[in-house]
Every structure is written in structure tokens, then in C-alpha cells.
Design brief:
Keywords: Endosome, Membrane, Protein transport, Transport. By secondary structure, the protein is an all-alpha fold. The chain has 6 helices and no strands. The protein has a domain of about 100 residues.
């Protein structure tokens, strides 16, 4: 409540000064309007005195005409003085208005400077900014380290990688040795099949090339057929050789 009361007390003189300034400006403008109206009246009287002087000259009343001209000159002088006062008053009013504008600009500038200083105090100064930038860089580096650590999970160490590579090489060597031994075992049979197939194919017309799998199956079947025919023909040949020839009578 104390703070609110002090604020109201500070605002009260300010409002009073503003009211006084407005009242003074209103008085100046009122005086200007009065001077302007008085000058217009003096101009009108001077014009009327001139008309009266012309009328008196036409009537031949020269003394009265001279008096009318003297009154016109007096009214013109008063109008000129009034115009001088009016000009000075206009200049004063414009100066006051410009001063009020400048005063408002200075107050706004003061408020802006105060706000800027308050914001700078809230920021904490240049040292605080440098410290924040350093902390930001450290936090960024720590985040990169965390990301690298998470990316390396499940990949194993370098020793595990080398051991796995050696085991893979050993398995490849075993597979290559098994394939080589299988080729050595099936070598003679494959060569016999190839000879029989070439002999049979020499008597047949040329045919379109077959797929590798179908060609291997046909060669295997032909080799099995030739082996079976050879085993069946062997006993017959032996029986012919063992049977004695019977002489035929003449």
C-alpha cells in the first residue's frame, strides 16, 4: 500500500503541471484570437474613415475630411501595432508547442534509456554473455559425445571385430577345401560322362544349347545308361567265349 500511495503522490504533481501547461497554452491562444479580432476591427474602422474622407471631399468639407483622414491613419497605426503583437504571440505559441514536443521526445528518450539499462542489467553484462556462450559450446560438445556413444552401442570393440573377421576367413577356407575335394572325387566319372556325351552328340544333329542344370542332368542319365548296358553285355560275351564250337559234318 505504501508503494501504491507513493506512486499516486508522484503522479499527482505531474498531472497538475500538465494541467497548468495546458491552461497557459489556452490563455495564449485566447489572447491571440482577441488580438486578431481587434486588428480586424481596426482595419474595418480605417476603411470606413477613408470612405468618410472621400465623401467629405466631394461635399467640399475639407476640415472634416482632414479629421477623417487623421482618424484613419490612427486606426491603421493601431492595426499595425496589433499585427506586431499578434506576430510575436504566434511565434511564442509555436515556440511553446515545439518545446512541448521536444520535452515529450526527451522524456521518451529517458524512458527508452532507462528501459535499455534495465534490460542490460537483466542480461547480466558482457561477462555473463561470454559465460553463456562457453556453456553452450560445452553442452554442444557433450551432446556430440553422447550421440557418438549411443551410435557405438552394439557394434563391439576392435578386438571383437578382428576375431569375427578371422573366424569368417577360416570358414571360407574350409568351404573352399570341401569344394576342391568334392571336385577331385567326381573328376573321373565326370570325364567318362563327358566322353560318352561327346561320342553320342557327334551322331546327332546340332541342337540348341540347354541350360547348365538340364545339361548336367542329361549327362548324368546318359552315363548311368552306358554303365548299365556295359554291365549287361559283359556276361554274354563271357558265355560266348566259354562255349565250345561243335564241328559241322560235311
Amino acid at each position: 500500500m505504501g508503494l501504491g500511495g507513493s506512486k499516486k503522490q508522484n503522479e499527482a504533481p505531474r498531472h497538475a503541471s500538465v494541467d497548468d501547461e495546458d491552461r497557459a497554452m489556452l490563455d495564449l491562444k485566447t489572447q491571440r484570437d482577441q488580438l486578431l479580432a481587434h486588428r480586424r476591427r481596426l482595419d474595418a474602422r480605417a476603411e470606413r474613415d477613408g470612405e468618410v474622407a472621400r465623401s467629405l471631399v466631394q461635399l467640399g468639407r475639407k476640415p472634416q475630411a482632414v479629421l477623417a483622414l487623421r482618424k484613419r491613419r490612427q486606426h491603421q497605426q493601431l492595426a499595425a501595432d496589433c499585427q506586431g503583437h499578434l506576430g510575436r504571440l504566434e511565434e511564442l505559441i509555436e515556440s511553446v508547442e515545439m518545446a512541448r514536443v521536444q520535452h515529450g521526445a526527451v522524456e521518451a528518450l529517458a524512458v527508452g534509456v532507462d528501459m535499455l539499462r534495465r534490460i542490460q542489467r537483466d542480461i547480466g553484462g558482457i561477462d555473463h554473455v561470454h559465460r553463456l556462450l562457453g556453456e553452450q559450446e560445452e553442452a554442444f560438445e557433450a551432446q556430440q559425445e553422447i550421440a557418438a556413444a549411443l551410435a557405438g552401442v552394439g557394434q563391439g570393440s576392435a578386438d571383437d571385430t578382428e576375431a569375427l573377421g578371422a573366424e569368417l576367413s577360416r570358414l571360407e577356407e574350409l568351404f573352399a577345401a570341401s569344394a576342391a575335394s568334392a571336385l577331385e572325387v567326381t573328376g573321373p566319372a565326370a570325364s567318362g560322362v563327358a566322353v560318352s556325351s561327346s561320342a553320342a552328340s557327334s551322331d546327332l544333329p546340332a541342337a540348341a544349347p540347354e541350360a547348365p542344370a538340364a545339361h548336367d542332368a542329361a549327362a548324368h542319365d546318359a552315363a548311368a545308361h552306358d554303365a548299365a548296358a556295359a554291365s549287361a553285355a559283359a556276361p554274354a560275351v563271357a558265355n560266348r567265349e566259354e562255349t565250345p564250337r561243335v564241328p559241322v559234318a560235311a
